[in-house]
Design a protein that fits this description.
Blueprint: E1 11-15, E2 21-29, E3 38-43, H1 60-63, E4 70-76, E5 88-90
Antiparallel strand pairs: 1-2, 1-5, 2-3, 3-4
Length: 95
């Protein structure tokens, strides 16, 4: 599978360690290869990502930014197969 190259300003999907997929904006890249690491601004689902009454479903990666609506995620690589993989990002599937 040919991977697309990440570029600043692209909207991608980020998969958290708990498996939640959220929209993210690439704000910085290292290199122009498809495997380049990127920094992301991940958009949270506002307070739904801070459901403390469902502690088993709480996603610490997202909860920190639930009130502001965004989380800073740094130095992440694209999933190799373009599918959701915890701790990685991927381009949205084409509809």
């Amino acid at each position: 599978m040919d991977l697309q190259k990440p570029t600043v300003g692209r909207i991608v999907h980020y998969t958290t360690q708990k498996g939640n997929v959220r929209a993210a904006l690439i704000v910085s890249t290292w290199g122009d290869s498809p495997t380049a690491a990127v920094n992301l601004r991940v958009f949270t689902d506002f307070t739904n990502d801070a459901n403390t009454w469902e502690a088993d479903k709480l996603d610490p990666e997202l909860a920190a930014g639930a009130q502001s609506g965004v989380v800073w995620i740094t130095s992440k690589c694209q999933s190799g197969d373009g599918q959701p993989k915890p701790g990685h990002w991927h381009f949205p599937p084409r509809a």
